[in-house]
């Protein structure tokens, strides 16, 4: 896919279908988990997953911070000239390093302080027990959730949006059927839903890694110059996307806590459903903007460097 020579409309709809599909299946993850756990445990199960919802916002937001922030700079440099592959890969490497650091920090926090975090997010009594059961298998796969967001952004910018979508679809489809199997057939309840989600995320991650064995792959790990400077650029570029997602998590925490104080578990279960509907709506409109990033970054820089090229 040639960002500079192909028609924008063609590129846009190719990327839109890919981005929309992957975003949609991500929202379905949460909806299916809540439906299965709610059916198995009742309102307390739905409430427990509402408590866990901010965890996803936080993890995904950091993945998007590194992925969107870095991939915009990656595409901008690729738009300059064919000889900038190494420099663009310095941003990819910086994103990988940043993602590793963030994943390790989040991993350590959730493993060591899961109870305290869930209580802070609004869990109480049996809701806390169910939330911890759900999170227990997910602890193992936490880095994969963050890396999936980061890699998906880079795969779209490395002209392989179909793989990014296919990887997320593969994990999502497994999660849907795995939820039913582990929750009901294996009688695992909330733990089974968490296990299916963790395995689904791992499948998506492994599928995305296949990109690095393809001939079309141009992503390379290189030694970046001025690593901290590049990380700062990535943080600045991706901050707006990060802020939107993390703000949703903060709002969910505030609502969870107030609902549990004044209305109780049943009300939180209802709110959990509303949160999932909100996530679904977000996943429908976010791809419209994110689809523009790969082509627009390259196009913009091309016209800055070569004004009047179209007329020529």
UniProtKB/TrEMBL annotation:
Keyword match Phosphoprotein: no
Annotated membrane topology: Multi-pass membrane protein
Regions crossing the membrane: 12-32, 58-79, 91-111, 162-185, 191-213, 234-255, 261-281
Keywords: Cell membrane, Membrane, Transmembrane, Transmembrane helix
Native organism: Lachnoclostridium phocaeense
Chief localization: membrane
Cellular component aspect of the GO annotation: plasma membrane
Localization per record: Cell membrane
UniProt cross-references to Pfam families, sorted A to Z: MatE
A molecular-function term among this protein's GO annotations: xenobiotic transmembrane transporter activity
Protein name in the entry: Multidrug transporter MatE
């Amino acid at each position: 896919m040639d960002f500079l020579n192909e028609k924008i409309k063609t590129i846009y709809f190719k990327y839109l279908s890919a981005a929309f599909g992957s975003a949609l299946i991500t929202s379905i993850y949460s909806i299916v988990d809540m439906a299965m756990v709610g059916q198995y445990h009742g309102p307390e199960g739905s409430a427990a997953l509402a408590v866990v919802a901010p965890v996803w916002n936080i993890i995904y937001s950091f993945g998007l911070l590194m992925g969107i922030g870095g991939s915009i700079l990656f595409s901008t440099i690729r738009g300059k000239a064919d000889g900038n592959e190494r420099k663009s890969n310095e941003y990819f490497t910086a994103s990988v390093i940043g993602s590793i650091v963030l994943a390790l920090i989040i991993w350590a926090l959730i493993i060591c302080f899961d109870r305290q975090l869930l209580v802070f997010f609004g869990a109480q009594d049996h809701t806390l027990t169910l939330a911890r059961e759900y999170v227990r298998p997910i602890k193992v796969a936490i880095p994969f959730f963050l890396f999936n967001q980061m890699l998906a952004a880079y795969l779209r910018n490395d002209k392989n949006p179909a793989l990014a979508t296919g990887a997320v679809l593969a994990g999502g489809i497994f999660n849907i059927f795995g939820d039913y199997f582990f929750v009901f057939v294996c009688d695992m309840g909330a733990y089974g839903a968490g296990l299916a989600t963790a395995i689904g995320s791992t499948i998506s991650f492994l599928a995305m890694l296949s990109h690095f064995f393809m001939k079309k792959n141009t992503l390379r790990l290189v030694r970046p110059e001025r690593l901290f400077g590049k990380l700062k650029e990535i943080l600045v570029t991706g901050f707006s996307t990060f802020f939107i997602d993390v703000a949703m998590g903060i709002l969910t925490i505030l609502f969870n806590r107030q609902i549990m104080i004044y209305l109780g578990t049943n009300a939180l279960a209802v709110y959990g459903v509303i949160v999932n509907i909100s996530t679904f709506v977000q996943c429908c409109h976010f791809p419209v903007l994110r689809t523009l990033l790969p082509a627009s970054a390259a196009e913009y820089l091309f016209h800055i460097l070569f004004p009047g090229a179209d007329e020529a």
